[in-house]
Amino acid sequence: MRSEGALTRRDFLRTGVLALGGSLFPQALMGSFCPRLPYEKSLSLYNLHTGESLRTVYWSEGLYIMDALADINRILRDFRTGDVKPIDTGLLNLLHSLRELVGSRNVLHVVSGYRSPETNALLRRNDDGVAGKSLHMEGKALDFRLPGCAVKSLYKAAVQLQGGGVGYYPGPGFIHVDIGRVRYW
Asked: What CATH number was assigned to the domain covering residues 40-184?
C-alpha cells in the first residue's frame, strides 16, 4: 500500500525520462525540433444560399470550442430542409490547413455543406455526378470557392494535402473536399 503523494514506479520513470530528455535535448522541450501546434484554428464562412456569414475560432489551446462548432454546424446546414448535422472536425481541420497552405485569410464561399438524404436524392435525380452515398450526408464534405484564389490553384493545394477526396469543378467555379479516402476527379 502506498502513502498519499508517493510516486509510483511509472511516475518515477516518466519523470526521469523527461528530466533526462530535457537535459540532453533542451531544444526539444523548447520546440526547436518539434513543429509547434497553432495556438488557434479559425474559419471564415459565407453561405452563398442563405447569405449568412461566420468568422470563428473553433479550436484553441488544444481544445475544440463547442459553441463555435455549433455555429459552424448551423451555417453549413442543409439550406433546403433546415436540417443541421455535426460537421466532422477532421473536415474543419482540413479546411483550416488548406487556407494556411494557400496563404489566405479570405472567407470560404460555401456552395454545399451538409446535405440531408432527401436533398442528396433530389440533387442525384438532376445530376448523375452526385454520389448516392455522398459524404455531404455525413458532415464530411464541403463544396466551396475561395475568393482571391484561382479554383485550379485551390484544387492543386487540396490535392497536395492528401486529406481525402478532392473534386475540381471549373465551370461553376468551386472545388469539393472531403475526408474520405484519398482520390481526385
From this structure: 3.30.1380
pTM for this structure?
0.78
Task: Write out the three cell numbers for 99.
Answer: 487556407
Q: Which residue has the cell 526547436?
A: 32
For the chain, the 3-state helix, strand and coil shares in percent, each to the nearest 5, are 40, 20, 40
Parallel, antiparallel or unpaired: strands 108-112 and 40-47:
parallel
CA 8 remoteness from chain centre: 40
Q: How far apart are CA 34 and CA 173, in angstroms?
A: 38
pLDDT digits (tens, 9 = 90+) for 66-103: 999 999 999 999 999 999 999 999 999 999 999 999 99
Alpha-carbon span 16 to 69, nearest angstrom:
39
CB atoms under 10 Å from CB of 36, counted, come to 7
CB 166 within 8 A of CB 151: no
- State the cell numbers at 60: 484553441
Q: Cα 77 from chain centroid?
A: 16
* Separation of first and last alpha carbons in the chain: 63
Residue type, 177: V
| Residues comprising the chain, all counted | 185
